[in-house]
Amino acid sequence: MIVGSSLESIAGSRISRSIDLESFCQLQIEQLTIQHPIFFARIVYQDTLLENVREVINYAQGQPTFSQKTLAYLRSEEWLIEYPSAFTLNEISIESLASSCYICPLGYRNEKPEYIQIFASEPLSLTLQQYVKQSAVMLSKFLDIYLECGQQKAEIQLLEHILQRAGHQLRNSLGLIGLYAQNLFLGLQENSYKEQATIICESIQQLDTNLTELIYCGQGEKLKVSLQDLRSLVVESIKGLQPLINQKQLQICLPEHSTTLAIDRLQMKQVFDNLLSNAVHFSPDTGTITCSWQVFQGEVLIKISDRGTGLSSDDIQKIFTPFYSRRPGGTGLGLTIAKKIVLDHHGNIWCQNLLEGGAQFSLILPRPKCRLNP
């Protein structure tokens, strides 16, 4: 029986890629119609990604199919006078059909009912009634996880599109600067100015390389995943900000313990660079920035907090929106890129205000399940 299966194992394998929603519903409904005396089962659900109502039906082996008129009547839901509570099995009367009819609601989605409908040649036993309710619970959980994964995928695609547009615009400007820098280099005599022009050209080339990494950041097929030490990566980001940290006389609190993550080191460093840079920028002089992490069985929860003025309600809603920035001269892409990288690592990121003052960014990343080549 599929009810005895582990939904968590399905979710952990990224259900949106390993099995599609209709196939899962078909599997569930086939399990129902092999149970005597059930001879017909129907699942109605909302696919919010496709923005339509979906239906899966199945008959027991050797059972004659319903007429189109009967199916049309079931789909009209004129018989659904009252909608019972979710995950309760309710017997209903349909005059045109002499069989026992049951409905087990999953709930409402987009103001539309989702349910399992069953026809049986005789009343269901208590054991079979419990089985149907367990199937409804399993199906409801799968729907929630599947749709969440689909929405996350759509968000990633949107972020990719935005990054590619922004990268294209930046590359055009960078190319023009590079052209003038090269002309300047060729027109100068061998002196200190020519050396400076050389440095400008080399810096532009490095920026162009970094921009290419930025444009393609977070794409699952382009992730260069290896085992990395979390604390070492955070320390590396802190070192890059050390001059400003010293200038503001900030204190950085960091755990002594560490853990290993299976990540793309370059891209995840961009995440920590951005989060720590924001924390340093918004921290008051002599303030404290706290980095911490908790290691669970399948994931790591990382928190970075400051003691600044905190976030407004508008900030919390828009902080990961492209081109939204609280920093003067900021592009508004840093946190957008950070979120995309975290999502592509199958994690999540969010922000909140602390009761004692300041803001906190939290991110969850999965722990490696098997050893990779570092």
TrEMBL record:
It comes from Cyanomargarita calcarea GSE-NOS-MK-12-04C. Gene3D superfamilies: Histidine kinase-like ATPase, C-terminal domain. GO terms for biological process: osmosensory signaling via phosphorelay pathway. SMART domains: HATPase_c. It comes from the Bacteria. It holds the Pfam family HATPase_c. Its EC number is 2.7.13.3. The keyword Nucleotide-binding applies. One of its GO terms (molecular function) is ATP binding. This is histidine kinase.
